[in-house]
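Input.
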Amino acid sequence: MDRILILDFGGQTTQLIGRRIRDFGVYSEIAPGDADISEYLHEGVKGIILSGSPESSWKQGSPEPDKAVFACGLPVLGICYGFHRLTIAGGGEVQPMPHMEYGRSAVRHLGANPLFQGIPKEFLSWMSHGDSITSLGSGYELIAESENGIPAAAAHISKPFWGVQFHPEVSHCEFGVNLLENFACGICAAEKQWTLEQYIEQESAALRVKAAGRNVLLLISGGVDSTVAAALLLNALPRNSVWLMYIDTGMMRKGESEEVAENLKTLGAENLLLIDAKKRFLEPLEGVSDPEKKRKIIGDVFIQVQEQEVAKLLPGGCLLAQGTLYTDLIESGQGVGSKAQVIKSHHNVGTPLVQAKRKAGDLIEPLDKLYKDEVRRLGELLGVSPD
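Output.
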């Protein structure tokens, strides 16, 4: 399947790049910004995007891509920090600005270029940067400028390299999706082959391999993510090997646990466990006011309760499954990039016990490559009620 490889340098909107590309039917894959590119250039990769970053490219120790990115022959699009890295690799210069530029900025492209195919000559972009390119480097020409006189886009005259200072992935940028589609489908010639139906087929096959002969226990909240994860597990695996565990933490609305229990029965699971653990959650939270500490306490107690109950019910052990999304990993600083920023921890992602299970290979996260809107559509395909 054709795909676009996105190298993640820790930008908080990296996942949006991937989401926008998938929205028009091309599969996107995200890898660490400083990854050995040879490990990712498998069949189907048609182009590479270098993401933004909270780092400054001119600072020592800031992340940089494998030099092979620029020698592999694939089209490359640099976005913001990624544009700076392209420029520096070509001998250009990047310097800090006196004042950070953040918000909408008018951009004017300077002539025919496939990156701007079908896009008006002037449009409003979205800027978020504190550094600026002061010299484009050998072989690059300016193809767009901003209202503030800052280079807004450039292209190499003989190599398939493009860079933009603005963020086409955010909704505030006019024609941003058009630009990404021009790159992916026009310049890279990637075909629109990505569908959620295909994802169900591929993920189900992977689940059958990983869980072969083992029980799988899913911690389920009754929300969209864990419910869709349950439906996918039940679709892929023998139903008698899938255990759904709902834990009442004492932090639900009145009557919510009873409502969730009734809804879960519609999934057709053979093994549904309802655990009253109010005391085990509320006692360690007493006197704790910091939200980050609360989330991590809750996450660890979830795992402790799960392990205690499994020891009683399944003495042979099991794999743990969670409805983790890709955005959960990003917000918890567990994204693929080594410089990924923490936005907030998720109780099912960033705690020591969860990380230990993930490292040991005892964790199944069948939705961890999907975004929220994709999960909702996946649920519809699996027959999960939108309510």
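The two ends are 33 Å apart (CA to CA).
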